[in-house]
Q: What sequence folds into this?
């Protein structure tokens, strides 16, 4: 049986003097090893708060009021998920790295708690950086974040996630700050990891072209709730909720405009 991670009835509020404001309300979904679930919605719909809440990593001003996570059908402490069961790739990789540490030092901080040190650690780090397509890992590992492009940093972040050996990956808007060529390469990389490693991916995005390219299943968020679930083909063929139709309309308008420009 494939491994699974289920989020059940997650609820998050933003406390206010006049009363708490619901940010995420009774959100439930399941990640399955070897599949990609796209969590989609407009900005402010609660996608990122859901990802943080399920890992007990909410920023000040937000509070989880309900929900649990089950790994392989067993309830687990949310605080223990990060880096062990779930790895995360962020939309702006420059904010995820310590600017005074080399890539090698970042990698060692991931593997050393698991007892891998010295040459053994360097071998694991080099292999991970090679797997994500960074040419000449030996040279890249001695670079600092400011010496690398956004696409290189995104690959490095994925490499660090692989070093954690987590069975599930959250990719929060992983292509937003990249050019089109880098976007395609990152999506190809994620798809390859799902196939080769069998990881389960939660793909957080508002870009329906990314959904069409990578997702198996789709959950649509609107005002803190999941309002529609379907396979990716079903969402594009017969969207039911107005929020889903609005995302698709924006997608079609954008790409129709690009097609017109290309033909002119």
A:
């Amino acid at each position: 049986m494939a491994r699974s991670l289920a989020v059940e009835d997650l609820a998050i509020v933003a406390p206010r003097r006049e009363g708490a404001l619901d940010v995420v309300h009774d959100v439930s979904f399941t990640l399955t090893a070897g599949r990609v679930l796209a969590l989609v919605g407009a900005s402010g719909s609660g996608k990122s708060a859901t990802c943080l809440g399920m890992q007990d990593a909410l920023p000040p001003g937000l509070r989880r009021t309900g929900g649990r996570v089950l790994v392989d059908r067993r309830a687990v402490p949310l605080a223990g998920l990060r880096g062990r069961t779930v790895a995360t790739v962020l939309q702006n990789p420059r904010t995820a790295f310590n600017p005074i540490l080399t890539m090698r030092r970042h990698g060692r901080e991931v593997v050393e708690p698991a007892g891998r040190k010295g040459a053994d650690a360097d071998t694991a780090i080099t292999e991970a950086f090679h797997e994500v397509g960074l040419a000449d890992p030996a040279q890249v590992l001695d670079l600092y974040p400011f010496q690398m492009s956004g696409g290189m940093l995104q690959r490095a972040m994925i490499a660090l996630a692989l070093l954690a050996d987590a069975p599930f990956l959250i990719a929060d808007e992983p292509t937003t700050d990249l050019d089109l060529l880098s976007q395609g390469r990152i999506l190809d990389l994620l798809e390859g990891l799902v196939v080769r490693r069998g990881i389960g991916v939660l793909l957080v995005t508002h870009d329906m072209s990314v959904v069409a390219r990578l997702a198996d299943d789709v959950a649509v968020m609107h005002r803190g709730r999941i309002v529609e679930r379907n396979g990716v083909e079903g969402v594009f063929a017969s969207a039911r909720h107005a929020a889903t139709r609005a995302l698709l309309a924006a997608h079609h308008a954008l790409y129709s405009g690009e097609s017109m420009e290309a033909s002119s």
